[in-house]
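Why does residue order matter? Because the sequence determines the fold. Keep that principle in mind as you read this record.
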Amino acid sequence: MIELLTSLVPETWAMHAPALLVVIPMLAGPFCAFLPNGRLAWIVSIVATGLSVLMALVLLTQVRSVEGGAVISYAMGGWAPPAGIEFRIDALNSVVLLLVTSIGFLASIFAWPTVKSEIREAKRAMFFGTYLICFTGLCGVASTADAFNLFVFLEISSLATYVLVALGAGRDRRALPAAGNYLILGTIGASFFVVGVGFLYAATGTLNMAELSVMLREVADSKAVMAGYAFIFVGLGIKAAMFPLHQWLPSAYAYSPSFITMFLAATATKVAIYALIRFLFTVFGLDFTFEGSSLIWVLMPMGIAAMLACSFQAVFQTDVKRTLAYSSVAQVGYMLLGVSIGTAAGVAAGMFHLVNHAIIKGALFMAVAAVVLMHKGTTLNDFRGIGRTAPLTMTAFAISALSLIGVPLTAGFQSKYALVSALLEHGWWWGAAVVMFSSVLAVVYMGRILELVFFRAPLNPNKKHNEAPMLVLIPLWIMALASLWIGIQGSFVAGLANDAASALFIGDVR
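Structure:
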């Protein structure tokens, strides 16, 4: 199927796919902002993200055309690296690009009913234009091989996100302080990252990641390099909502427009985790002694703390959006725990869970968006009895909830099983126990919602209840069925995750 789609792409487009994937939405964003109405902007966003998915599929096919994975180097503007900016696609970021573009495309399809309900007509065209700029930034972060260019794309996506979160004030005024808090912490994270990049440039004289990885071996004991590592680690940790640097996330997810909550939950932290993995294993490498200590004494404890503390916080929430937001931080902990093992199996498990969680949480927030559309609320009481009147919406929600818990035959089970296997193989049996205990907590906070949805009567039985519109149901069920497909036949996604880890551990058979 993938080969059939990519064969239809003109050769010239395929040759410039790394650039087109970013340039198409980048040009479409400002164009949307000047369109006379939001519906036209919505259609443009679908076309732009759809073309980006096609380019991502082309790149994935090109990377997988060579055994062990090809590396695609694209010099922007014809300026060869390291003097010019390079886009570099390998088995690691080709997976992330396909994930971000696919989620972005499905999000664009589902967007119109919720945007029409929550965003004023005068702002809808600008809203979709800003969304495409955010989408551009995330794709750019996953594509670029230049450390400073990564910062630029990170800020492009972040600045657009602050605006998008603030536009949630039309439904809930608390979106404004949430956006302000996100802006402050996001700016601190970006500042830390760019200061770290500055230290690396001072020590090596280059910003190209491939060249940095070679030159850092000669100056690895430099205090500037160690300081740069620390700044980059903290900066990307804030962007990835690493515990306890996650304080911006719960409110941003809870009060954003429903469409933006869904998109951010499925992509933003995932791209930041990718960037962290890229710097940890490609730029610095495990030979960097400072990194080995940070994986064991910083990343691993933070991952475990997130899994436990945020799962407990999710249990006591009365708002479903906030429950899922704290759950997202806990799930980031799973990914970071896998990365902290420092082995190919651990990173593969972390990447596997990254992909699965994006699909799971995207579907969950999409279903919540449908409830907001029908009931204008996200409290637990708003979910009482909806399973009887909106069975299609809530069945998809239930499938995704069970996958988040890790029930067998779901995507969540597959990646948690891979993570537990990697932990036991490394001798971290206690880490496997924490994964199991955190999953039990997920049973509590997701089971409580499912019990209200399917086994309780609505508080107001006379209130009109509706099924979600088809524009919401179609992408929602695509993601829910994808979760089941991965749970039953997960070899394709697991293979992509293994290839991604192998790109970082060439010749490593651990």
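The radius of gyration is 22 Å.
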